[in-house]
Amino acid sequence: MSLTSILSAEAIENAIKDCQAPESFTYKKFFQLCGLTKKSPQEVKDVFGILDNDGSGFIEEEELKFFLQRFSPGARLLTDKETKSFLSAADDDNDGKIGVDEFQAMVLS
Prior knowledge:
Mean pLDDT: 96
CATH topology: Recoverin, domain 1
Number of strands: 2
Radius of gyration: 12 Å
Strand content: 5-15%
CATH class: Mainly Alpha
Largest sheet: 2 strands, antiparallel
Number of helices: 7
CATH architecture: Orthogonal Bundle
Structural class: mainly alpha
């Protein structure tokens, strides 16, 4: 499964363009622009599975740096500040990683 089977390529491109500059990534705006906030809970879980690069059931800080590149290979890396901010916003149980339920709650809230 690919992200473009869930989200439109055009929406992904627009979301990536919006946060090209370092320190310009805002997860809420990104989720809205790429159309993820309008998807079903199952589709959000499917996207999580694609973003969980190592298949651990979690998105760890190291994977989060490459978040934008999972949507578009030519996209930039998230900065350390953006990565830490993103992680702390989603990591409700403070275990240092984002689980599928945390991701789903973040996207659909």
